[in-house]
Amino acid sequence: MKIIKPRRVRSLHKLRVLIVEDDSQRYAIFDKIFANHDVTKATRAAVGCAWLHKDRAAFDLIMLDHDLELTHYTMESVLGTRAAGTGQEVAHAIARLDTPPMVVVHSLNPGGAAAICVILADAGVPHHRVEFSRWIGADLHKLGILRNSDEHWERVS
Questions:
Q1: DSSP state of 9
Q2: What is the dihedral of CA 67, 24, 16, 64, to 10 degrees?
Q3: What is the DSSP string of 11-63?
């Protein structure tokens, strides 16, 4: 009698992910994590807001950085007090959605990340804050958003 090992079944449900990030090295990591999912990229806050405005229910997950464009070189952004052109602008747009998706704030700017989390919390938006690292996929796994199976990340049903 031949014993056949069952094959692992990959998730049939792809995540629709909006990544708001301006760092190409971080995108390389996100490209690996979300290789099997539908990803939309925005390198500027205005572009992220435009995607949210275009289709208000298009995303299951938003990965949100704070320091975008050249704003991360200004003291206001470092202190988390300047919203225009940062992840805070995108957070305000997310807060206006009827049914906002899960948001993961992955900024290394503690003041900016905290400001985003306040905006999201005040609006009742489900969110988590994680520090960006090359291990961010493991953080998403710990949060129950993704699972790692056979070297690819899939949606947790």
A1: P
A2: -10
A3: PS---EEEEE---HHHHHHHHHHTTTSEEEEESSHHHHHHHHHH-TT--SEEE
Query: Which sequence spans correspond to the domains of the chain?
Result: 16-155
Distance between CA atoms of residues 94 and 48, nearest Å: 10
Model pTM greater than 0.90? no
For the purposes of burial, counting CB atoms within 10 Å of the CB of 157, is it exposed (0-12), middle (13-18) or buried (19 or more)?
exposed
Q: What is the pLDDT of residue 70?
A: 62
CATH 3.40.50.450 matches 16-155: no
Q: How far is CA 68 from CA 29, 46, 108, 122, in A?
A: 17, 10, 12, 22
pLDDT, tens only, 110-139: 999 999 999 999 999 999 999 898 888 888
Nearest to 84 by CA among 45, 130, 112, 54: 45
> 10 Å Cβ neighbour count for 71?
23
